[in-house]
Amino acid sequence: MKPFAGALAETPTRSLPGTLLRGFRGFAAYFRGVMGADAYGKYLEHHEASGHPAAPMTEGQFWRDRMDRQDSNPQGRCC
Predict the structure, then answer these.
(1) Domain positions in the chain
(2) Dihedrals φ, ψ of 56, to 5°?
(3) CB 40 within 8 A of CB 62
(4) Which contacts (CB < 8 Å, 24+ apart) does range 62-67 have?
């Protein structure tokens, strides 16, 4: 009896370009999170989940508000 014969037979074969593309997309999503580029999307998710009665800020208003808050309350940032 071969111990890994069944496991190898059930493993789907994946193409190298597809695997690289998935890896790149994962890295890009991670990088956007580190840089804060996904902050507006997170804000919209939070706004909807918490049930605020007012309409959410537009993307321009959100970024302006975020930069104003960071300028008035500087915390550990690189720049």
Answers:
(1) 38-73
(2) -70, 160
(3) yes
(4) 66/39
Cβ atoms 49, 58 nearer than 8 A:
no
- The CA distance from 14 to 50, in Å, is 40
pLDDT in tens, 1-46: 555 555 555 555 678 888 989 998 998 888 888 887 889 999 999 9
Q: Between vectors from CA 63 to CA 60 and to CA 64, what angle results, nearest 5°?
A: 80
* C-alpha dist (Å) from residue 69 to 18, 29, 30, 58: 41, 25, 24, 16
Burial of 44 (0-12, 13-18, 19+ CB in 10 A): middle
- Report the predicted TM-score, pTM, of the whole model to 2 decimal places: 0.59
